[in-house]
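Friendly challenge for the regulars: who can give me the structure tokens for this chain first? No prize, just bragging rights.
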Amino acid sequence: MENIAIVGIANLFPGSNAPDAFWQQLLQQQDNRTPITEVELGVDPKTYLGKKGESDKYYCLYCGYIRDFEFDAKELTESYLNQLDDLHHWSLYVTKRALQDAGYWQSEKLKDCGLILGNLSFPTKQSNHLFLESYRHVVELAF
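First reply, four minutes later:
Bragging rights claimed.
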């Protein structure tokens, strides 16, 4: 078995983009969920509002969304990266912060490093655009 060292840490959560701030929110039991909007869902959220237990419906219109995030692609190929889904922007942001925290950002040592990236994401603007017709088709077949 190989030795693995965690040398940097970073995060991007609703209401927090720094580990210390996130830790304080946990200690304060802060709820950073916000109402879902048409921007995130791709349609009016009330379209899918139902009662708990109903198929193909939401029964909670509050989610943990990352809002007011500005992706800075200056260090990479901007035209391509700016077209990526928010999920990729968030992942790149957190990766850079973790490498900075570890002291490895722009270091030769990176060639010997790997990355373990965890992400639990709600639908994003881009993914909704791609899957909206499929969702509609499935819902229509259910009726």
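The chain has a mean pLDDT of 79. The longest strand covers residues 34-35. Your move, everyone else.
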